Amino acid sequence: MEPASINSVATAFAAGLVTSLHCLGMCGPLACAVVPVRGDRADAHIASSIYHLSRITGYAVLGALFGALGRLPMEWLGSGVARLLPWLLVVFFVVVAFRWDRYLPRLPFLGSMYLRVHGWGRARSPVVAAAALGLATPLLPCGPLYLMFAVAMLAGSALRGVEFMLAFGLGTVPLLWLLQLNVHWIRPRLPARWLGRIQAGLALAAALVIAWRIRGTLGFSGPGLDNFVCH
After folding, report:
1. Could you tell me the maximum CA-CA distance found in the chain, to the nearest angstrom?
2. How far are the Cα atoms of 35, 59, 67, 116, 185 from residue 190, in angstroms, in the given order?
3. pLDDT exceeds cutoff 80 at 59
4. Cα atoms in the Cβ-side hemisphere of radius 13 Å centred on 203
5. How do residues 201-222 score in pLDDT, each as one tens digit?
6. Handedness of CA 129, 114, 58, 187 (dihedral sign)
7. Tens-place pLDDT, residues 83-109
């Protein structure tokens, strides 16, 4: 990874951390469904690990796809388009903060495919079910995830699309993993309204920090922008 792309990847990781607060309320119950309710603690750790590995693999595969799809239009439009990436990340954080992602169009057939995989996994071992549901997670109707896939098109290549979505996926892991292994203790203590407030505050803070760092760069000039874009 080139040094100039590191900050974009770091910002994608931060986006994953912020989005995981949304995941706790929306995807959390589905993520917890892959963890064995009964059995020893090792089973829960194995199932949770397999779930996250397969989920991040799914993100990486789609990151490669969107990165590759975006490469040709970017070549037509010129390399300057890639310089919009940090500002799109600012937009992402603002959209997440105000929950405007709720107004994005959904693709119901993708959700139906996920439910089929979920039903199929019930008759399988916890490890197989966790792997299948992890790979199918990108099918969920998740506005922030859709936005990140769209932003990945400006990564510039399939490889950088993978880097970008891997960083985002890794950012979502810590809180979801904590919830999976401690769901009965965490859920009563973290009401959905507080999760939303914390997410909004963190998202706005991230947007302000990035915008401040790259202020004055809308004209595609200035040293601040080069710290965030992928070349």
Report:
1. 59
2. 20, 27, 36, 30, 9
3. yes
4. 25
5. 888 888 888 888 777 665 544 4
6. negative
7. 677 788 888 888 888 888 777 777 666
Here the tokens at position 101 are: 């992602």
Instruction: Copy the structure tokens of residue 156.
Output: 């510039």
Q: The tokens of 150 are what? A: 């769209």
Which single residue is written with the structure tokens 């929950």?
Answer: 99
Q: Are 29 and 179 in contact (CB under 8 A)?
A: no
Q: How far is CA 205 from CA 14, 94, 178, 199, in A?
A: 11, 9, 24, 10
Residue 2 is predicted with a pLDDT of: 43
Backbone phi, psi, residue 154, to 5°: -95, 5
* Beta strand extents in 48-195 (DSSP E only): none
For residue 144, how many C-alpha atoms fall within 13 Å in the half-sphere facing its CB? 29
Mean pLDDT to the nearest integer, 29-39: 64
